[in-house]
Amino acid sequence: MEYALAFLLLAAVVALVVALPFLRTGSAEAEEDARRAELDAAKEAKYREIRDAELDYRMGKLSQEDWRAVDRELRSEAIEILRRLDRLP
Amino acid sequence: MAGIGSACLAVGLFTALYAAGVSIYGARRGRRAWVTSGRRAIYCLAGLMVAGTAILQSAFLRSDFSYALVAEGSSTDTPGFYKVTAMWATQDGSLLLWALLLSLFSAAVLFLTRRSLREIAPYATAVLGVVAAFFLVLMVGWENPFDTLAAPPMEGNGLNPLLRHPAMMIHPPVLYTGYVGFSIPFAFAVGALVTRRTGADWIRATRRFALVAWTFLGTGIMLGALWSYTELGWGGYWAWDPVENASLMPWLAGTAFLHSIMVQEKRGMLRIWNVSLVCGTFVLALIGTFLVRSGILDSIHAFGASTIGTQFLVFIGVVVAFSVALILARLPDLRSRAKLDSLLSREAFFLLNNLVLVGLCLVIMWGTFFPLISEALTGDKASVGPPWFDRLTVPLAIVLVLLSGIGPVLAWRRVTLRGLRRVLVAPLALTLLALLALLVLTDASQSPPSLVMFCLVTFVLAAVGQEFWRGASARRTVTGEPWPRALVRLAGRNRRRYGGYLVHAGIAVLFLGVAASSAFHDQRDVRLSPGQSFRTGHYTVTYRKPTARLGGDSAGTGAPISLGAVLDVKKGDQRFTLHPARNYYPTQDPSKGVVSRYFEGEANSEVDVRWGLKRDFWLAVRPDLASLDRPIREADRRFPGASNDVQAVVIAALTERYRSHPPPAAFRAIVSPLVLWIWIGGAIAVLGALIAVWPAPEARLRRVRSLYAARLGRELSRA
Fold this sequence. Notes:
The complex is a heterodimer. Chain A has a domain of 61 residues. Helix content of chain A is 87%, strand content 0%. In chain A, helix 2 packs antiparallel against helix 3. Among the domains of chain B are: 161 residues, Four Helix Bundle (Hemerythrin (Met), subunit A); 104 residues; 153 residues, no CATH class. In chain B, the strands form two sheets. In chain B, strands 2, 3, 4, 5, 6 and 7 form a six-stranded antiparallel β-sheet that branches. The longest helix of chain B is centred in the middle third of the chain and has 33 residues. Chain B is globular and about 95 Å long. Classes of the chains: A mainly alpha, B alpha+beta. The interface between A and B is large, with 51 and 67 residues.
C-alpha cells in the first residue's frame, strides 16, 4: 500500500516536472543563445591558445619566427570565430 | 519507509528510460520541448536517488533491522561513523551509490550545457539515461536495497571489520565518483559521434568532468593504498590485486585521454584515438565495478559473491559492441587533416605518453584476467604474481616518468634543437648531480631500477621547477612584479597549464616513495615473549608487555575485544613506543558457544605506524590464543545460556588471564624509507588537478576577453 501510494505520488511529481516544457513555446532566441554560447567557448579556447603560444615564446621555447607563424594562424582562426559571432542576429 | 525507497527506484527506472526516449525523439525531430523534458527527467532522477539514499541512510543510522541490508551490514554496536559507510559495504547499497552519483553528475553536466551543444546534448542525455536505467534495473529486479525482512532480527551482523577504517569510509564513494564521472565524457563522445560533430566542442564541455573523475579515481586509489598499508596487516600498499588493478586501469586510460584531448583541442588531431580512449575508459570503469562485486577473481577486496555478474557482463558487451560499431561508422568524419609538424613537439610526446599509458593498461589487464584466460585454455586457474607485474610495469613506468618531465618543457608544433638544448640543459645537469650524490652518499646503486627512477624524479622536478621559474621570469619582465606575486599570478592565469605541471611533480614524488620503499624496505617476522628484543633496520625493538581492552578499542571500530602489545623502539638517541593490537569481533554463528563466538568471529590488525619523512616504522601483532582455548571451551560448557553481563565478566576474566600470563606473540616489523612521500605526492597531484579544474574568476576572464577582443578587433578592421 505504502509502495503503491508513494509510486503514484512520485510519478505524478515527475510527470508534472517533465511536462512543463510542453506548455511553453520555444523561441528562436534560445537557439541563437546556444550558438552564441558555443562560439563564445570556441573564442575563449582560441584566446587561451594565443596566450599559451605567447608564453612559450617569452619562455624561450619557441623561436620568434615560429611564434609569429603560429600566432598569425591562431589569430586568423580567432578572427573567423569573431566574424561568425558577428553574423549572429 | 522501505516502500517509498522502492518506489523511488521504480519511478527512477521509468524516468531514466523516459529521459533516454524523449531526448532521442526530440533530437531526431528537432523538437526542443522534448529534449528539455528529457533533461528535466534527469534532474528528477537525481532527486529520486537522493531521496532513496536518504531513506536508506536513515535506516542504517536508526539500526532498523527490518531492512535486510541493515541487518546484513550493520549492528547496534557499530559506531555511528561506520553506520553511514555500511551502505556501500553491501552490493545493493553500492549499486544505489552508483545510481546516485551518476544521476548527480548527469544533472550537473546537463544543467551546465543546457544552453550549448544543442545537437550533442540530447544524445548524451539518452546515453546517461540508459546507463542509469541499467543500474536501476539491477536494483529493481535483483538487488533491491529496500528489501525488508518478515521477522527482523534483534541484532545485525555488523560491518565487516576490515572496512572499519577512516580511509574506507570515503574510499568507495570517492572511487565510485571516479568511475561514474567517466560516463560523462563517454556520453558526450557518443553524442558527438551520432551527430557527426566530432570537433573539440564536446571535449571543451566535458573536459572538467573528465578531470574531476580522474582526480576522484586517483584519490580513491591513494586512499585504498593507505587502507591496505594501515589496516590489512601485511605491510604493503599495493599488491597487484585484481580489484586494485581494476581501479588503476581506467585511471591510466583516463590519464591518456586527458593528455590526448589537448592535442585534439590544439591541433584537431587524434579524434579516432580520443573517442576510442574515452569509450575504453568507460568500459574499464564498468569492469572495475563489476570486479569488486562479481567475485569472479579472487581478491581480498571482493566483498561477497554477486548475483548480477551475468547482467554486468551483458551490459559491458553491449557498450563495447555499440562503441566499436559507432566509431567504425563514423571513421570518415573522424579523420584529421592536420599532421604532426615535428617529432620534436609536445603533441608527439603526448602521443608517445599515450602509447606507454595504454601499454601499461594492457599489461595490467593481461595479468589481471590471466586466471580466467588460463582457466579457459587449460582448465587451471593459474595467476601471475607481483614479480610478473613488476617485471613488465617498472620499465614502462620509468619511460612514463621520463616523458612526464620532457613533455612540459616542449612547445606545441615544433621545437628547434637549439630550443631543446636550452630547456633541457638545467634539468639534465641537476639529474647528473643527483646521480653522483646518490652513488657517493647512498646505497641506491644496489637497486638499478630505483636508481634510474630517483634520477628521473629529479629530472621531472627540475623540469617543472624550471617551467615555473621561466614563466615567472617572463611575467616579471613585462609587469615588474616581485617573484612570489609573479608566480601566483602566472599559475592563476594559466591554471590548466601550471596545475598540470604540479600534477606531474606530484606523480614524480609519488614514484620516489614507491621506488624507495619497494627496493629498500627491511621486514622481520618474529615471535617474542615479554622482555625479549629483536633488531631490524638499525632499530632495537623490545616487547614490553601485552595489552587487553574490552570495548572502546583505540581505533574506535567498536570491537568488543582488543588484544595487543606495548613495544619500545630504540635507534641511537631516538626512542618511541608502539601499541599494535588485534581486534576480535563476535560471530552470529549459532553453532559457536556464547564465549567462543567472541574469539572465533572475524579479527583484524590495528597496525601502529611511526610515520616519518625519511622512513616509517610499521608494526603489527598477532596474539597467540592457543593458551586460551581450554578456558574458552570450559566457559562455553559452563555458561551455555549466559546473560550479556555474565558473558562480559567471563570475557574480562579470559582477557585478564591473557594479560597476566602472556604467551609469545607474533610480530611483523617493517622499516620503509620514504613511504610517506607516496601520499604526499598524491596530495600534490590532487592539488594540481584542483588548480587545473578550477574556473578562472569571471572578472579576470572579462579583462582578458576585452584585451584580446580589442587586439583582434583592430586586426579585423585591417583584414
